[in-house]
Amino acid sequence: MLTTLQIKSAKAQERAYKLADGGGLYLLVQPSGSKLWRYKFRIGHVEGLQALGAFPEVSLAEARTEHAKSRKLVDQSVHPVQERKRQREALAIEYLHRDKGAFETVYAQWDAATAVGLKSGTLKQRTREITNDLLPTLGGRPIASITRLEVTEVLKTVEKRAPEVARNLRNYLWGRRRKDRFACGMTFRRARSKRPTCPGIPRAGECFAATGQRRRRSAAIRGFRRGYSCRRRGV
């Protein structure tokens, strides 16, 4: 077993050499003087090598901790290098989705998509109300983690102080006109359920394109019916 004093005292030589700590963990001392932690393992008939960092950035105790984690994986026939890579990728995807699906991010997309045509005073009021009363509580939360009940509780709190503001916020979220709804670009979970309340609802920017398509389709259907009715009457 190595000691910190031994590691600090190890001098560079013409060729790289190893200082074993046990269980496949060793310190590789390079001719340049760098000291690198390595874990040599075997799964089945295949050998593998894992880099665990450099000394002194990674201390002896830290190297042993990481080595112990990797040995547990090897005992389960799991390749520690591939598993660590998988975990990093999963974490990166999680952060990416968390950022893209954050309440404040969806709000920014919706705000940009619906600001066209609004009067300056109306837009300022909407921005002020959402910024002051929704973003402080919900801004950093992933949309998928927010329940409709939570939003309702926030609105109730606002209503006690400013009923008119609470009414405006409800209209932004669940107003009568679908194209103007903030909720058109988001999906709230039901409490105690992993299923979304409105599966398949498009994001804010897509909502308006979908609305236009439905309008054109409805107009075409009405035109067809009108022409068919005229032919039936012989007009």
UniProtKB/TrEMBL annotation:
SUPFAM superfamilies: DNA breaking-rejoining enzymes. InterPro entries: DNA_brk_join_enz (IPR011010), Integrase_DNA-bd_sf (IPR038488), Integrase_DNA_bind_dom (IPR025166), Integrase_recombinase_N (IPR010998), Phage_int_M (IPR053876), Phage_Integrase (IPR050808). Residues 103-172 form the Phage integrase central domain. Keywords: DNA integration, DNA-binding. GO terms for biological process: DNA integration. GO terms for molecular function: DNA binding. Belongs to the 'phage' integrase family. This is Uncharacterized protein.
